[in-house]
């Protein structure tokens, strides 16, 4: 069916629905007015009572369905099949007056298909398969082709393989709860697996906690609060400057015959060559001794 024709059909159905709702409101007003009137035999004697009759109720406002965003187009990705069908089912549930016919539901789903999924639906429409006339058959066929089967063992394996790693607890908890919803296990087992997947740092901190909750939601809430406190404390440590005491060098007193600034200067290559040529001390520059026996060297210094 052409999308333009589908839109025309939907518009006509909406107009009929609005007309029916207005007619229903008018009938309710007439019924309320008749019930407020006195009996025919007592109209003359109860003329004053008729004036005290309650006013007519306000007309019932026309029903306006909740606006919903359309589902994302489905291209046949098995990981997105369940979410796509859930969005379509929500539209059908909130708009029963529009999708009272099974073919309308099928047409709505097909109109939001693309890629391989659209090719599959087009093949069914072209050959006139019975699935295009029965919504339940079409839905079962659709799930069998595109939806990944949820097997208990597969879900258990994926649940036990989820670990926090370097992620935040909140990110890890979201993945864990999404997979846990497919297992239908009790909270005791889920709490055990959730704690097993936490990082080593969080596990060490949990040892000092007095008691954890009895449900998975309570445990996740407690661990999230603990993770927030750890992050806040790490931020505080990074902002606190670490003060180091200055290192003090020992104070030495030197003899008066020690050359000034000798300890903080280095000989130039020319000066070194001159002293070697003339046989002078490499430390003080005097004649008559070498550096190893220099009386002014550090080995001859006295500490005060």
Question: Could you please describe the fold and organization of this structure?
Answer:
This protein has helices at residues 3-36, 47-51, 81-94, 102-111, 115-127, 135-146, 152-160, 169-180, 187-196, 200-207, 216-239, 269-278. It is mainly α and 304 residues long. Among the domains are: 78-146; 152-237, Non-ribosomal Peptide Synthetase Peptidyl Carrier Protein, Chain A, CATH 1.10.1200. The chain starts with a helix and ends in a 26-residue tail after the last helix. 10% of the residues are buried. The model is unreliable at 251-264 (pLDDT under 50). Residues 280-295 form the CCHC-type domain. Pfam families: Retrotrans_gag (PF03732). This is CCHC-type domain-containing protein.
> What is Rg?
45 Å
Name the CATH class of the domain at 152-237: Mainly Alpha
Number of DSSP-assigned strands: 0
* Total helical elements: 12
Q: Specify the structural class.
A: mainly alpha
The CATH architecture name of the domain at 152-237 reads Orthogonal Bundle
The main pleated sheet reads as: none
Order of helices and strands: HHHHHHHHHHHH
CATH topology of the domain at 152-237: Non-ribosomal Peptide Synthetase Peptidyl Carrier Protein, Chain A
Q: Roughly what fraction of the amino acids lie in strands?
A: under 5%
- Distance between the amino and carboxyl termini: 106 Å
* Uncertain regions spanning at least 5 consecutive residues: 251-264
Shape call: elongated
Mean pLDDT: 77
Q: How helical, in percent, are the residues?
A: 40-55%
């Amino acid at each position: 069916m052409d999308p333009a024709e589908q839109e025309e059909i939907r518009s006509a159905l909406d107009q009929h629905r609005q007309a029916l709702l207005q007619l229903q409101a008018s009938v309710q007003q007439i019924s309320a007015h008749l019930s407020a009137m006195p009996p025919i035999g007592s109209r003359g004697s109860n003329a004053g009572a008729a004036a005290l009759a309650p006013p007519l109720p306000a007309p019932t406002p026309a029903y306006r369905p909740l606006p919903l965003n359309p589902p994302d187009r489905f291209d046949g990705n098995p990981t997105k099949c369940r979410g796509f069908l859930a969005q379509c089912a929500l539209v059908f549930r909130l708009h029963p007056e529009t999708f009272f016919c099974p073919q309308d539901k099928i047409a709505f789903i097909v109109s939001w298909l693309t890629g391989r999924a659209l090719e599959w639906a087009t093949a069914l429409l072209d050959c006139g398969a019975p699935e295009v006339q029965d919504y339940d058959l079409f839905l079962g066929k659709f799930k069998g082709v595109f939806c990944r089967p949820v097997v208990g063992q597969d879900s258990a394996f994926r649940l036990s393989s989820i670990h926090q790693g370097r992620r935040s607890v909140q990110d890890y908890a979201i993945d864990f709860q999404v997979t846990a919803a497919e297992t239908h296990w009790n909270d005791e087992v889920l709490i055990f697996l959730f704690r097993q997947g936490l990082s080593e740092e969080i596990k060490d901190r949990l040892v000092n906690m007095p008691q954890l909750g009895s449900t998975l939601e309570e445990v996740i809430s407690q661990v999230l609060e603990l993770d927030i406190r750890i992050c806040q404390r790490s931020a505080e440590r990074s902002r606190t400057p670490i003060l180091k005491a200055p290192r003090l060098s020992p104070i030495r007193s030197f003899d008066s015959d020690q050359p000034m600034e000798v300890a903080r200067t280095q000989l130039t290559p020319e000066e070194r060559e001159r002293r070697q040529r003339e046989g002078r001390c490499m430390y003080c520059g005097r004649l008559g001794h070498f550096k190893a026996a220099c009386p002014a060297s550090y080995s001859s210094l006295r500490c005060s």
